[in-house]
Amino acid sequence: MTNVPATEASATADASSQSLTVRDNRTGAEYELQITDGTIRAGELGQIRVDADEPGLAVYDPGFTNTASCRSAITYIDGDKGILEYRGYPIEQLAEKSNFLEVAYLLINGELPTKEQYEEWVHEITYHTFVHENVKEFVQGFRYDAHPMGMLMASVGALSTFYPEATNIADEQNRHLQIVRMIAKMPTLGAWAFRHAQGKPFVYPDNDLNYTENFLSMLFKMSESKFAADPRLAKALDVLLILHADHEQNCSTNAVRSVGSSQVDPYSAVSAGIGALYGPLHGGANEAVLRMLKRIGTKENIPAFIEGVKNGEERLMGFGHRVYKNYDPRAKLIKKACDDVFEVTGVNPLLEIAQELEKIALSDEYFVKRRLYPNVDFYSGLIYEALQFPPEMFTVLFAIGRAPGWLAQWNELVTDKEQKIARPKQIYTGDRGLDFVPASERWA
Ligand code: CMC
User: Fold this and answer.
1) Active site includes 147?
2) Any idea where the domains of the chain sit in the sequence?
3) Phi, psi of 19 (to 5 degrees)
4) Whether CATH 1.10.580.10 fits 71-405
5) I need a labelling partner for 379 at 20 to 30 A (CA). Which of 10, 26, 42, 87 fits?
6) Which of 238, 247, 282, 328 is catalytic?
7) What's the pLDDT tens digit per position in 347-367?
């Protein structure tokens, strides 16, 4: 940071047009801060201080609402216009014309694969779908009613103990192997968590099937020798995985990056991401939406429910977003996928309630003023339920879809020379310098 008088700074028109002049009214000093890519370096504020021996100025930003934590070339979002692109490709085109594994390749490698690269990638993922037999034993060790997200989080974290070499994160090939393993094994772990809760035997991966069909087979196969998913349902699930594959610096990705910044292995970092996704304000919202729709029960109950939301009694789950101040483009695509799925399964009766809720909310001043629109989680649960998933599994599906995004972001973090261990500041509000009195005296 240069500490120059403003008059001097404005003399260099070009430089000053890309800078911010700050006057500290406590001291009268002026500072010129460089603006790069619409940001200033928070660290540069540190030189703004009254006395040399006191801490410099910092930014206070709970929830990082206006703080960029990294440079990233993976996902672009324009929240006002409702635009989402992976590596520059619009989500609408990827959902219509690509498939989940190709999108995963794109996110991680930055470019679409050639035919050879694609075949190699699919081969690698397919042949890493099996997990060590020990994994089966510890999944079986969970209580019969364990939430599958808790099981997924624990089992992904536990994979680090099976692959201790994963700690060698400086090695590109090694990183690639762990990325492949994780994308390949997440459906196996998710499906086994589901089967465990249902008291059904685990189904091993079937390498003749594609990624989504194999996942459905591990979930739903019973005594038949080969599970054949309805291709329209497998396609709809594949589209849903694409729509969830990445979303720049959201809560779980931030968790993956934050934990990954300590240079821990990627299984531990992704496990932290799964924990973050579990929460109802993030990926857990899809489960919460379905429970909310069931609780509302009939269209007649909607006005009273909306009144409760407006009075601050609860939130309309599946509505609102930190970045989108317009219709979430993923919600639009999911609404369309609903039609395809319901054509096969019959219409989910909760759809009527969801559509009516949306209609009322989009014309109600409370939601209009706050720019609250349906997000990705508003309609996805209706599809998942039609596909026979219980609500506890919804966020597991989100996690499997998000895995390539987490791993692409982790890989970018590890290779970004500007990144450091994540370690925010705080504003200390507690006591200082108290004299400790031992319990024996305090309780006498
Ligand atoms: N229902 C009712 N009011 C809401 C909602 C909602 N769903 N979302 C935000 N608001 C209100 C909030 O009360 C606040 O009002 P006021 O200014 O009067 O205090 C205003 O809108 C701004 O909300 P905020 O909480 O400051 O916004 P945020 O950016 O911190 O939170 C959010 C974003 C997604 C956590 C929030 O909109 C929410 O809780 N939505 C419901 C949960 C949900 O659907 N989450 C899934 C998000 S999309 C999938 C994902 O990426 O995880």
Assistant:
1) no
2) 17-59, 71-405
3) -140, 170
4) yes
5) 87
6) 282
7) 888 999 999 999 999 999 999
